[in-house]
Structures are given as C-alpha cells and as structure tokens.
Amino acid sequence: MPELIIQIGGRDFEVSCQAGEEPYLEAAARLLDNEAQVVSQEIGRMPEARMLLMAGLLLADKTVALEERARAAETELARLQARPAPVPERVEVPVVPGAVVDTLAELAARIEALADAMEESAGDALDGIRGKQPDGP
C-alpha cells in the first residue's frame, strides 16, 4: 500500500491508500488544505483536530450545496423530460395557385410553338435566298 505525505493547514500527515489512488488522495488533500488555509487565516492558530474538523465541515457544507444543486437540476431535467413533446408548428409554404400554373404552362407551349414557327420561317427564307439547288451533282 503506497504511503504519501500530505500537507493540511501547514502540517504534514502520513497516509496510506490503495495502489493507483494516489492522484485522488492528493486532490482530496488539496481540497482539505485549501479549506484549512481559510480556517487558519480567519481563526488563527488552533489545535490540529479542531483545524481538521473546521476544514472538514467547510468541505461538507460545499458538498451539501452541490448535492442540492444536482438534485434541483435532476428534478428540472425529469420535469422537462416528462413534458409532452411540443406540438409541431405549422409552417405554410406559399403555393402557386393551379390556375396560374396552368396559364404559365399554356404560355410556355405558345412560346415554344412561336419559336418553332420562327425557325421554320427562317429556314424557308434562307432556302429562298440561296435558291433551291437540285440534289446531287
């Protein structure tokens, strides 16, 4: 079992932990040391047991506050998940009326017919200008 020396409130403590848990112990020790520093600055020098008790109580207070926030967040999440899904919003897409579509299709057909007639007339006119040449040599 690894043994570590941690410092809490300016005092060294030798502690043991399971192999691989050293980083977690060191992180926990830093949290406790931060609270012990606050207690020492506010109250001054005090017996080791009292300093550790006060630092532990400060950490416990923070933990309780975080647990309450987590519970409130879980309650809100559950409330939101239990709500029925919102009714889909109706979105209207502008639609061209059928009569307009029919009229546009008719106009397109007329334009195409006029273009075909113009091409045919232009072809006949060119033939007339060139004079019809007999087929073959």
What would your notes on this structure say?
The chain is mostly helical. The termini are far apart. Helix 1 packs across helix 2. The protein has a two-stranded antiparallel ribbon. It folds into two domains: 3-80, no CATH class; 99-130. Helices cover 66% and strands 9% of the residues. Keywords: Cell cycle, Cell division, Coiled coil. This is Cell division protein ZapA. Residues 63-124 form a coiled coil.
Task: State the main characteristics.
mainly alpha, two-stranded antiparallel sheet, 3 helices, rod-shaped, 137 residues
Summarize the structure.
With 137 residues, the protein is mainly alpha-helical.
Major β-sheet strand ordering:
1-2
Count of discrete structural domains: 2
Please indicate the percent range of residues in DSSP E strands (runs of 2 or more): 5-15%
Shape category: rod-shaped
Low-confidence parts lasting 5 or more residues at pLDDT below 50?
A: none
The tally of beta strands, per DSSP, is: 2
Please identify the structural class as seen in this structure.
mainly alpha
Span between N and C termini?
Answer: 113 Å
Order of helices and strands: EEHHH
Keywords: Cell cycle, Cell division, Coiled coil
Protein name: Cell division protein ZapA
Coiled coil: 63-124
GO biological process, one term: cell division
